[in-house]
Amino acid sequence: MRRYVEDDAGLVHAMMSDPTVMQYFPAPFDLERARALIAYVLNSYESHGYSFLALERKPDFIYVGHVGLLHWDDVDDREDVEVAYFLRREFWGNGYATEAARASRDWAFENTGTDRVVSFIDVNNAPSIAVAERNGMTRLRRLEQNRFGKPMYVYGVYRDEWLATCSSPR
To answer: Where are the beta strands (DSSP E) in the chain?
Structure first.
């Protein structure tokens, strides 16, 4: 996992212009929207110290997708750190999302003051729900209206739950 740079907009566009990858979102991204996402990510690095990271396969540095942490303050009247992930379709089902989501969750608890890490998931997105559950999260609630205009589940894990399952003291 590495930080994005401006020149990565083409990678993001190639992944997020795929209608299958974007099936649970309002629409696939055009190149301008991919550039805007990169700008948002770069700004988030500065303002929060975290955001999406480019996910590359270790042996050959092939771009797999992105995973990381997003900052929200519009759910449950509190600030939250979200673990979010998008993978190129050809890399689905290989465990990359789960491994990277766990690393992101751990980083959030180790490096931010958050007491809870969440994932917002379309109610029909069974693969992402499975990743959240493998990431130690449970369903906290259902949102009927959200930023994407579709019902979503809020999955989450609290710091004390995470600490109870850690293999090493934190």
So the answer is: 2-3, 52-56, 63-75, 78-87, 116-122, 138-143, 152-158
| Per-residue pLDDT reduced to its tens digit, 28-53 | 999 999 999 999 999 999 999 999 99
Distance between CA atoms of 88 and 106, rounded to whole angstroms? 23
Q: Which pairs with CB-CB distance under 8 Å and at least 24 residues apart come from 42-48?
A: 42/4, 42/6, 44/70, 44/71, 45/3, 47/71
Q: What pTM value is reported for the model?
A: 0.90
C-alpha–C-alpha distance, residues 37 and 34, integer Å: 5
Rounded CA-CA distance 169/167 in Å is 7
Q: Residue written as tokens 């590359």? A: 56
Residue range 64-111, pLDDT digits in tens: 999 999 998 877 778 889 999 999 999 999 999 999 999 999 999 999
Q: How far apart are the first and last CA of the chain?
A: 22
- Judged on CB neighbours under 10 Å (0-12, 13-18, 19+), 67 is buried
Other CB atoms within a 10 A radius of the CB of residue 44 amount to 18
Taking a C-beta distance cutoff of 8 angstroms, is the pair 131, 93 a contact? no
Fold of 2-165: Aminopeptidase (3.40.630)
Q: How far apart are CA 67 and CA 83, in angstroms?
A: 7
Q: Tell me how crowded residue 103 is: count the other CB atoms within 10 A of its CB.
A: 17
